[in-house]
Amino acid sequence: MKGPLVLAFDTATPAGSVALVDGERTLVSRYFDVGLQHGQRLFLEVEDALKVAACTFDQLSAIAVTIGPGSFTGLRLGLSAAKGFCLARDLPLVTISTLEVLAARLPFALCPVCPMLDARKGEVYTALYDTSAGRPRLLEGPRALVPQALLAERAGIPTLFTGDGVLAYQDLVAACAQARQAPFPCSRPEAGALAWLALARLEAGEVADLASVEPEYLRGPGVGV
C-alpha cells in the first residue's frame, strides 16, 4: 500500500457509489443506481470493492462518508453504516459535504462552482466553491432554496453549475446569463472524490465524533426526500 487506505461511500443521491483509495491511487470506484434503495446494495458493493482490491477491513485506515445534504433515507443509511464499520474496527470517520464532493469533481475551474442538488418540493440544495487552486474552497455555505432565487443571485456572474439539480431545472439554468453547465458525467457525487478529500482531513486530524455526528439535512423531512 502506498498510503492510508480509505473506504468511501456516498448514499446521498439516487446514484450511490463506493471507492477504495490508497493514498494517491483509486483502487476501486463503483456506482450503483438503485433509486433510493441503497440498503439493498451498499453492503454488497463494499464487500465486492474489497474483494476486487484484494483488501480486508483490517487494512483500512479510515471510513469516509457524505454527511449531506441529500436524501434523508440515504444519508441516514450511509452514516449508520459508516458508524457501524468504524465502531466494529476502531476506525476514524471522516465526513464531507455532498456539495463539496460535487465541486471537487471540477478542479481548477476558472469561475466559481455552484453545485445544485435536487431537493424536491421545488427547491435545490446548493453552495458555492472556488476550485481554482484544485481543492474546493467554500465561498458560500450550504442552503436550500428555490432555483429561481439562486439563479437570480448568480445572473450575469460567470458560474459553473453542476449536479442533478441542473438537470432538473435545465431550462432555468440555460436562461441564466453567464451560467455554464458542467458535463453530465460530473453531475453526480463520486466516492473516489470523497476519499480524496478525506485523505487531507485525515492527515489534519479532522475526524468526526462517532457519538455526536448527525447528517446535515439543511431542512426538515418531507415526502419524496
What descriptive keywords fit this protein?
225 residues; alpha/beta; Nucleotidyltransferase, domain 5; five-stranded mixed beta sheet; 7 helices; globular
Report what the structure shows.
The structure is a single chain. With 225 residues, the chain is of the alpha/beta class. Helix content is 30%, strand content 30%. The chain has seven helices and ten strands. The protein has a five-stranded mixed β-sheet with strand order 3-2-1-4-5, with helices on both faces. It has a five-stranded mixed β-sheet with strand order 8-7-6-9-10. A hairpin with a 6-residue loop joins strand 7 and strand 8. Helix 3 (98-104) crosses helix 7 (191-203). The termini are far apart. The model has no long low-confidence stretch (mean pLDDT 92).
Brief synopsis:
The protein has 225 residues and is an alpha/beta fold. The chain has helices at residues 42-52, 72-89, 98-104, 147-154, 164-168, 170-174, 191-203, and strands at 5-10, 15-22, 25-33, 62-68, 93-97, 113-120, 123-130, 137-145, 159-162, 179-181. β7 and β8 (137-145) form a beta hairpin.
